[in-house]
């Protein structure tokens, strides 16, 4: 793989996974199926806090996106089955492993589908789901793949990222922004049930430390 000339892993967006971006004339990698869950905190005595979502911090020693704060998720395994069922099985498994939270696959609400930019060597075709968090079950990091976990108001997480206190990648930022319009978990879930899920595939423009991820405006 030739890659783009003059690139150092430290200059690349975190989404690149530390690998050189592929040149425009190179064949893009085939995206691997993956699932991610945006777990929303239940109301009850916490409803005065507004909407909060579970986020976990990846291990700083990880090869792929070290130290980045993400929503629990991962790649679909062959044992998960196929199609939508496999994505749901993967989603609840990764949630249990990374945040010690258990939800039923049937309770997941489809929210979005994002495909990694073509220039990135490690690509995923990720289904994002919303789910209501189980009662009295705070998220807990597994201490291996994830080292920290917690509930965050979307605006708070975005502000922390702007201040350099949390490392967050482009798809996570965009999903946090999409949650800003909802006052509660119930409101977000109801909107998701009416939502038409269409594939979103950002692009990477520029090279080296000028490379950035961009999202084209929908037609």
How much strand content do the residues show? 15-25%
Q: Tell me about the largest β-sheet.
A: 5 strands, mixed
Overall number of strands: 10
Mass-distribution shape: globular
Task: Report how far the terminal alpha carbons are from each other.
Answer: 34 Å
Series of H and E elements: EEEEHEEEHHHEEE
Q: Quick check: average pLDDT?
A: 88
Give the class-level CATH name: Alpha Beta
- Kindly provide the radius of gyration, computed on alpha-carbon positions and rounded to a whole number of angstroms: 17 Å
The helical percent reads 10-25%
What's the CATH topology name? Answer: Nucleoside Triphosphate Pyrophosphohydrolase
Poorly predicted sequence stretches spanning 5 or more consecutive residues: 1-11
Explain what the structure shows.
This protein has 219 residues and is α+β, with helices and mostly antiparallel strands. Helix content is 21%, strand content 23%. It contains 4 helices and 10 strands. The strands form 3 sheets. The protein has a 5-stranded mixed β-sheet with strand order 4-1-6-5-8. A hairpin with a 6-residue loop joins strand 9 and strand 10. Helix 2 crosses helix 3. The N terminus is likely disordered.
Features:
219 residues, 5-stranded mixed beta sheet, single chain
Helices and strands in order, then pairings?
Blueprint (H helix, E strand, L loop, with lengths): L31 E9 L12 E6 L10 E2 L2 E3 L7 H17 L9 E7 L8 E9 L13 E7 L1 H9 L7 H10 L5 H9 L5 E2 L2 E3 L6 E3 L5
Parallel strand pairs: 1-6, 5-8
Antiparallel strand pairs: 1-4, 2-3, 2-7, 5-6, 9-10
Helix pairs in contact: 2-3
């Amino acid at each position: 793989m030739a890659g783009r000339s003059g690139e150092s892993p430290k200059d690349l967006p975190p989404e690149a996974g530390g690998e050189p971006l592929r040149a425009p004339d190179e064949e893009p990698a085939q995206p691997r199926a993956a699932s991610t869950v945006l777990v929303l905190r239940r109301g009850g005595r916490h409803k005065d806090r507004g909407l909060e979502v579970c986020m976990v911090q990846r291990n700083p020693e990880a090869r792929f996106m070290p130290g980045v704060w993400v929503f629990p998720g991962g790649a679909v395994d062959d044992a998960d089955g196929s199609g939508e069922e496999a994505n749901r099985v993967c989603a609840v498994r990764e949630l249990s492993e990374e945040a010690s939270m258990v939800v039923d696959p049937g309770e997941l609400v489809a929210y979005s589908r994002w495909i990694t930019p073509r220039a990135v060597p490690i690509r995923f075709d990720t289904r994002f789901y919303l789910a209501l968090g189980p009662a009295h079950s705070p998220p807990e990091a597994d201490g291996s793949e994830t080292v920290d976990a917690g509930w965050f108001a979307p605006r708070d997480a975005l502000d922390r990222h702007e201040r350099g206190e949390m490392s967050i990648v482009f798809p996570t930022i965009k999903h946090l922004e999409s949650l800003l319009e909802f006052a509660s978990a119930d409101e977000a879930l109801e909107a998701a049930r009416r939502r038409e899920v269409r594939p979103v595939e950002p692009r990477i423009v520029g090279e080296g430390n000028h490379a950035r991820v961009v999202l084209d405006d929908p037609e």
